[in-house]
Write a structure and sequence with these properties.
The structure is a single chain. The chain has an eight-stranded mixed sheet with strand order 4-3-5-1-6-7-2-8, sandwiched between helices. The protein is of the alpha/beta class and 490 residues long. The chain folds into three domains: 2-21 and 442-489; 31-351, Alkaline Phosphatase, subunit A (3-Layer(aba) Sandwich), CATH 3.40.720.10; 357-438. The chain contains 17 helices and eight strands. The longest helix has 50 residues, at 440-489.
Length: 490
């Protein structure tokens, strides 16, 4: 009986582990060729502000007096750049959010084994593809991008982890630390020839991770005065940093600024799930290569945010969070992150139609590369007569779409190029999902059959034991009756 229970425990453990083997596998593949747009980029440098835990409505809405909590950002929306909502995905945590923003792919579910703190599988990112990246902020976020970078061109500056106290009275100090250290960095660069030379290179990135809003949201909730005051402090800090950049680089018009958030937050100060307050984050862009504000008379969306925020007349351009990565790479002319599944939002670009078409074509080829590698890997581990390819994107169809897109570029039919490349991207993404879940049904059926088999075996064993017990009892009863009968005869 002990052997039976031990065997049962082992089988249930195997069935439990099979869930992770089937559903918690990394979607990432390696071996792709880097792809970049073969035209001069509009920007030499990019500044990325990520206000951790900032909800879209908290930034865009006006207060009870009709004033903006972030007057500088609102002025950008109305006079200098483009804006919209960035739609995140579950889990709405900091690591998956930053990976989507900077690497262009959504959470690798295998990272749950490390508590969403880092990715167990190496991946490419905007920082890795840049010539140099300097980053300031939380020690929980910055190291994961420096760790996976090839070479030593990603520099991180973090405060002590003890500063991240969710019960702190003044979490704005986390953001003040970042702004002050960026200013000190540029002041020091004026007296350091080596550093001065590096920050005047092209294809460079500056990343400011601002954790104060998230910390205040956890400690005091988004409706609190502390959370809203922190938004004002961030707005003031961004204004100072932008002014410093423009002054340092002599207003050369070669800097692009991106302001966004990794995730939002519920009214009670949590995040991780899929409520709109957690998945809707702000996106404001301005500077080199970014389209200026577009005045419109009417816009169609499934929500009433435009009226609530009094932004009905400024064109809103929504994106998926992973789309921000290809946007940033195209702006500074570095290769698209190899694992990115983001679709370039060309409506944000203020450039020639040729540049938009070439960038979209590069985006399509980059995602198609992943599809080809994924298909090859699956084909190698599947018996030839059992392999079923993704029929919607055959080799001939890939060739025809790419050839047609190149022909459209040659004949300056740029709108057709963008549409065709988007079609190819959607097919490639479907194909990636198809091959990632290729064995899921087969494995699931095998687990079910195995589980049913074990239940049947256990049931038969119990029935057999019960039958033997009944037989034993019946035999004993017969013996006793026989003894009684003999005694009565005597």
């Amino acid at each position: 009986m002990l052997l039976f229970f031990t065997l049962g425990l082992l089988i249930h453990f195997v069935f439990f582990a099979s869930i992770f083997d089937i559903y918690f596998t990394s979607p990432l593949v390696h071996g792709m060729t880097p792809q970049f747009t073969p035209l001069p980029p509009p920007a030499r440098r990019l500044v990325l502000f990520v206000a951790d835990g900032l909800r879209a409505d908290a930034l865009y809405e006006l207060d009870e007096n009709g004033n903006s909590r972030a007057p500088f950002i609102r002025n950008i929306i109305m006079h200098e750049g483009s804006w919209g909502i960035s739609h995140t995905r579950v889990p709405t945590e900091s690591r998956p959010g930053h990976v989507a923003l900077i690497a262009g792919f959504y959470e690798d579910v295998s990272a749950v084994a490390k508590g969403w703190k880092e990715n167990p599988v190496e991946f490419d990112s905007l920082f890795n593809e840049s010539k140099y990246t300097w980053s300031w902020g939380s020690p929980d976020i910055l190291p994961m991008f420096a760790k996976g970078a090839s070479g030593d061109h990603v520099y991180t500056y973090s405060y002590d982890a003890k500063r991240e106290d969710f019960g702190a009275q003044d979490a704005t100090k986390l953001d003040t630390w970042v702004f002050d250290n960026v200013k000190d960095f540029f002041h020091h660069a004026r007296n350091n020839q080596s550093l001065f030379s590096k920050i005047n290179e092209e294809k460079i990135v500056f990343f400011l991770h601002l954790l104060g809003i998230d910390t205040n949201g956890h400690a005091h909730r988004p409706s609190s005065r502390d959370y809203k005051h922190n938004i004002k402090k961030v707005d003031d800090g961004v204004k100072e940093i932008v002014s410093m950049f423009n002054h340092f680089y002599g207003n050369d018009g070669k800097t692009t600024f991106i302001f966004t958030s990794d995730h939002g937050m519920t009214d009670w100060g949590s995040h991780g799930a899929g409520h709109p307050s957690e998945t809707l984050t702000p996106l404001v862009t301005w500077g080199a290569g970014i389209k200026y504000p577009q005045r419109v008379s009417a816009q169609q969306f499934d929500d009433a945010f435009l009226k609530e925020w009094r932004l009905e007349n400024w064109k809103r351009l929504d994106v998926n969070q992973a789309d921000i990565a290809p946007l940033m790479t195209s702006l500074i002319g570095v290769p698209f992150p190899l694992n990115s599944v983001g679709i370039l939002p060309v409506d944000y670009l203020n450039n020639t139609d040729l540049f938009k078409a070439e960038s979209m074509f590069t985006n399509a080829v980059q995602i198609l590369e992943q599809f080809k590698v994924k298909m090859t890997q699956k084909k190698e581990v599947t018996l030839p007569f059992l392999f079923t390819p993704f029929k919607l994107l055959s080799d001939s169809k890939q060739f025809n779409i790419l050839r047609k897109a190149r022909s459209y570029i040659k004949h300056r039919k740029f709108d057709e190029v963008v549409s065709l490349c988007k079609e190819l991207i959607h097919l490639a993404l479907k194909g990636l999902s198809y091959y990632h879940t290729y064995d899921r049904f087969f494995l699931g059926v095998n687990v079910v059959i195995g589980f049913v088999g074990w239940i049947s075996y256990a049931s038969l064993l119990i029935i057999k034991s019960h039958s033997n017990l009944i037989k034993g009892v019946s035999k004993e009863v017969k013996v006793r009756l026989e003894n009684v009968r003999i005694q009565m005869m005597v």
